[in-house]
Structure formats: C-alpha cells, structure tokens
## 1
Amino acid sequence: DSHGKKKTFQGLQSSWVDNLKALKLEDAKSIVGSGDKLNKNKLEEIALIFLASVLVRNHDVVGMFFDNLMYTPDNSFVHVDAGGSFHYRAQGDIKSGNRTDDEDHPYPRNPEEVHSMLFSGKGASKLFLPLLQLHPEVLLSASKVFEKKLSDEKIKEVVLNTWKENSDNPEDISINDEPIDDFIDRIISRRNIILEKIPEIVTKLRH
C-alpha cells in the first residue's frame, strides 16, 4: 500500500478444463444408465459427490441452473464452483454463524443435509434423488470409499492445509474464533453421523 506495507489475500485457484457441458438430469441419466445397462461405477461417483456435498454443506453443488456440476466428452464429472469450500460461500462471503449454537453453526455436528439434499424436492435433490433411486445400494459401497478416503487423519490434514497460511503454528489457528481442533472434531462428527445414517437413507430410497 502507500505506506509500504504488504497486503495479503486469500484466494482459490482452479484448473481450466475445456469442452465441459453442464450436467443436466437427463445427461446424468444417460451416463449412468439403468437396469441391465446401469453403470454402477458412474453412479457411485454421483453418490460420492452427494456425500462430499453433505459433509461440507454445499447446497449449491448442482447450481441454480444445473451448471455447477459438469462433464467432459469422456463422461468424467467435474466441479466448477467453490461453494463447497470450508471457509467461503458460493458468492465469496465468509461462512458465519453462532459458534455457541450448534444449529446456527456453519457446520452443525448433526448433518441434516443428508436428508434435505435428497428429499426436499428442490436444489440438489432434483439431481441426486432420481439418480440414487436407480440403485440405492450404491450408497453403501460409496460410503465405504468415503470413510476410507476421509479418515480422521485425512480430515485433519485437509483442514490444516486449508488454513495453514494463517499461522506457522497450527495450534494458534482459529476459524471465526473457533479453535482449529474443535472445528476438526466437528467435521469428523459430521462424517460419522453421515455414515451412521446411510442404511436409513438406503431404506427410504427403496420405497
């Protein structure tokens, strides 16, 4: 600045991918297939996107116009929006809330999104529900991958890497005044409850 002081800013950099198309429901159904032609691997990818979105409360995962999830010519799924980042909302605002009231916390320990993102009839549920109803059991296999990839250690690593620029000493990092260890424990709690609820969700999807 004019006083010779260095200013620092947090930012997010993404890779540019050419030839993307917005993943509309009809496109997703075509890629996933159905019946004897069901591609369980692609459906499991959708299930993992759902689980990850629930974990970080990314209500905007599909976008207002189904334009936040896209796919490549070889039918690979691609996220193009950072609304699921820990610290920021889709429009760039810092996620805020009452740190002493769990229900008003940006990340409540009990992730109600595991229901709302499937059964609310709006937003992400318009994509996830009709796809996961094709073969509800895919959530069981996806949850095992989800659990393996997001161990306690991995969650801690991801969170610390996200905020490590804030301090050379991890124990000094806080997220909107919440100690980093409390925040990590909160995300682990969300993961555990998501996993506990999967059998219930599978049963509900079958009916």
Note: The chain has a mean pLDDT of 84.
## 2
Amino acid sequence: ETHFNQSGDRHGLATTWLTLGHIANAQGNLAAAQQFYLDAQSPMQEIDHPEAVIPVIYQALQLIERQDFLGALPLCTHAIDTLTPREQHVPLALAHLIAAAVYAAGEDITAWRTHHDLAQTLLQSQDVALFEIARAAEVAAIDELLELVPGDEEMLARAAELHLEAGDPGLAIGRLSELAGALRERDEPAEAIRIYRRVLSIDEECLDG
C-alpha cells in the first residue's frame, strides 16, 4: 500500500487486490481470495473497473454462508444485470454468481426458473470450466424445481438430457421413467411408450458398453 500516494492510483490498487484474489483462488485459498476481492471493492467501484462485480458476488456468498438468502438475492440480481449485457463475461465472477444464485433462490419457484434459464444461457460459453459449473447449476435448479413442482415434464426431459451428457445413464433413466409415469397419468400412452422405449434403448447401450 505504500506504493500508492494519498490521491491514489485507484486502478493500480484495484488491480493489485484483484490479482491477489485471482492467485489465492487458483491456489484453492478461498478465504484469502474472498478477503482480497472485498479489499478491491472500494477502488474498483470508484473507477468503474470492469470486474467490479466480483466483490458484489463475494458479498452475496458471505451472506449465504450466514443463511441470509434474502440479503444475498438482490446482490445476485445486481450481478446478473451487470454481467448479462456484456459481450466479454468474467468467467470467475459468473461461476460464483451461479453458485450464489442457486443457493439464494430457496423455495421461490420463479427464482429457480430464472436461475435455470441463466445456467442454460451460460452453457453457450466456450470456457470449459464455466460450462461444467453451468451444467451442474442447471441440474441443481432442475432438481429443486422438481421438488417444488413434481412431474414437470419439461424439466424431467431436460434433466435426463443433462445426465446423459454428463455420462450418467442411471440418473437419466430415472428421470425418463418419471416422465413416462407423468405422461401415463395424463392419459398419453403413446408418448409414455415412446419414453419407455428410450429407457430400454439407453439400458441396452449400457449393457453393450
């Protein structure tokens, strides 16, 4: 800090704290990363730093750790509003945003649907790590939605697709079986039979493998 005069090189200060945060995060020292990011918040906001949303997300994570989901949700919303219009997203910020948003949603069905849609949008990312986090976040959102709205056919079908993409046919078969059951209850035997045939096809592929 002695390298900065009183008026301050705010950009240099923000960049220094941010770099320390990135290093700590890469080393797996999340507590230190969180502190460095929070230290960066004030100078970053003063100069409208492009990564100024990162400390906001860490604030949300702190609130989530204290089970203050209602306090965290508006911060997550702010981060979403800040990041969504950008062509160049901040992968680290988005990764933590998803984690915060999923946990902050609680039992609010609308919030879970919003975060499900966000995760689907992020699945278009070319960043491999972000793609995997987004897929896990979408699965978590779907699982929660199916707890709140059992038998949602769209969510069951999407869950099965995601499980297959992740190489987990057992979970995919489970969701497809639920979907077939929901279709039978709606008196749509033809669609139910189509899904059951899909289940048998996946099962046969597993046996052949």
Note: The chain has ten helices and no strands.
